[in-house]
Amino acid sequence: MMIPRRQRRQLGLAIHSATLSQVNIAELLNARAASFSVKSSS
């Protein structure tokens, strides 16, 4: 099955942006957990 080059690039961009958003969400959750643990310890 051959995928046109333009469509393949769009697929790559979509996957790339999806992984980027997942990383951003993970970093936000980590930062929120860190600030929460700091508040609870103090």
TrEMBL record:
It comes from the Bacteria. This is Uncharacterized protein.
